Amino acid sequence: MKNDEPLLRRRDFILGGVAIGSVLAAGAILPLGLVLRDDEDLAQGIGGVQVAFFPRTKVGTIGQVSTTDPLFFDYPLTAQSNVLVDVGQRAIGGIGQDRSVVAFSNICTHMGCPITDYNADERVLGPCVCHFTTFDLAKDGQVVLGQATQNLPRVLLELDGDDIIATGVFRLISGYANNLGGVNVEIAAASGATTTPSDGATDE
Questions:
Q1: Which residues have CB under 8 Å from 140's CB, separation 6+?
Q2: From the DSSP assignment, how many helices (H) and strands (E) are in the chain?
Q3: How far apart are CA 40 and CA 21, in angstroms?
Q4: Which of the four pLDDT bands, split at 50, 70 and 90, describes residue 186?
Q5: SS3 at position 22
């Protein structure tokens, strides 16, 4: 081995830590749904995550999204509420012609209170009714003001024609150790029906 060759890359260290943490917590390596890639990709919001075990669910159409009136939907489970909105500027993970349509959990990362107020002029969600935290949806859901210290979880989106498809969630939803809540869970679908992950994440 060359002396200048790194023994362990940052990416491998992160992935190893996730796997070990899963073993310690549950006694087995569990699919956590997200795998980090290179820091450069994450910074650009391109290919920053790799989704596994999440359902592909239609959550709206591009024509339904506006810059003033956010849409709310459940994903990946029922009662896991999210907000879908056009922030009017290019954003990390954004879709659409201007890469400005984004979706985030609207469950506050401080104590899990739902947030429904949206300020279109400032592109912020909040303030939270519990402790007044606000989050900037144009800046990856980061905290603007308040008690919370973590960004909102971002819903990963794809366009299929005019349909907006949710494909995963980046970061843990407040109150969950696993965004999918374990096995044999009810998965939210835009139609109100339920669906299960296509690759067999739930038990038979």
A1: 45, 91, 92, 93, 151, 154
A2: 2, 12
A3: 25
A4: low
A5: helix
Q: What average pLDDT does range 62-78 have in this prediction? A: 96
Active site residue ranges: 110, 131
DSSP 23-72: HHHHSS----SEEE--HHHHHHTSS-EEE-SPPPEEEEEGGG--SSS-EE
Q: How many CA atoms lie within 13 A of 197 on its CB side?
A: 23
Residue 15: other Cβ atoms inside 10 A: 14
What's the burial of 40, exposed, middle or buried (CB within 10 Å: 0-12/13-18/19+)? exposed
Q: Record the pTM.
A: 0.68
Q: How far apart are CA 137 and CA 75, in angstroms?
A: 18
Residue 91 in this model has a pLDDT that exceeds 90: yes
On the question of a cis peptide bond just before residue 31, with omega within 30 degrees of 0, the verdict is: no
